[in-house]
Amino acid sequence: MMNRRAFVKSCAVASVASTFGASMLRARGGESLKAAAAQAGLLYGSPLFPQDFNKPRLLDLYEEQTSIIAATVYMRKTQPDRGHFDLSAPDRVLDFARSKRIQVRGHTLIYGNATPDWVRDVPRDQAEKVLVEHVRKLVSRYAGQMHSWDVVNEAIDPNSDRQDLFRRTPWVEHLDSGYIELAFRTAAEADPKAILTYNDFGIEGDAPDHDVKRRAILRLLEQLKKKDTPIGALGIQSHIGPQWHGTKLRGFLREVEQMGLKIFVTELDVRDKDLPGDISARDRAVAETYLRYLNAVLENRAVEAVLTWGLYDGDSWLQERQSRSDGKHVRPLPFDEEMRPKPVVEAMLRAFGNRRG
Fold first, then answer.
1. What pTM was computed for the model?
2. Can you list the domains of the chain with their CATH numbers?
3. Which helix (H) or strand (E) holds 68?
4. 282-317 pLDDT, tens per residue?
């Protein structure tokens, strides 16, 4: 009887071969995404969500395909009430990763949209203590076990009424812009070896608001570097559409690289809500966008990791947030709802191979 790992690999071989031709696949030898990424000097992965532990086939797919997984540690989940921490979910991810020798990154320590309501009611003179205690608690617990942390997430808003374009959050209201430096320094004290990351979205395209946001993020990174803040990387989320042609992204990434920062693609997926209903046509368009995007991004050698925001379509946040008008399930990720590989897999293999070449 075929074991689960062999079954997953055989499905990948059959599906990708039928889409792109058996000769190409034979040349790759049924290569996994993590193996192809490693050959290109990259880590490939995805978050591992709490609901995924009920899906043995999916866990096998994570072992087969990923070299890094993200553990979500949103404050509203990990400290829902002041002083009451629940770290059972990230503990489980770390246990799984350790057993499979997969690296882990934490997402995310300080994030305005994931801040529990009680933080708004904290007196200003206690806000610094609350932030420090939260960051220290999580980072210390997993010290030496994390590849990287998204320390601060989505701090910039191109439509903000603030001159520095900082997003209005409880942390800005309590601590002004200094909360970012404070979070990074606290994390570095708790785990000096983890790569500390600033993570954001809406910087991948050519639209005017993306230009504004890129400039604001560069200013933020420059200020942090001038203060010797222990920041090691920029995370670009990369929730993109099928018409992506981000000609300005390359220059932005070069500027980030010149600051001495690593770059991680942290949340890649491709929206298909406005594409035709035909699955083959949709999958081709999504795969072509992956290839175009990754070819552009991976030109920059500072890029060291690529994570899709989910490994298979059954986990995609876009099903709820950007669903299709025809009622069909969205298909933005490498594997479909049945955990079968899609043309995206071959597109990613090609992009990793191009980087390797």
1. 0.91
2. 31-356 (3.20.20.80)
3. strand 68-72
4. 999 999 999 999 999 999 999 999 999 999 999 999
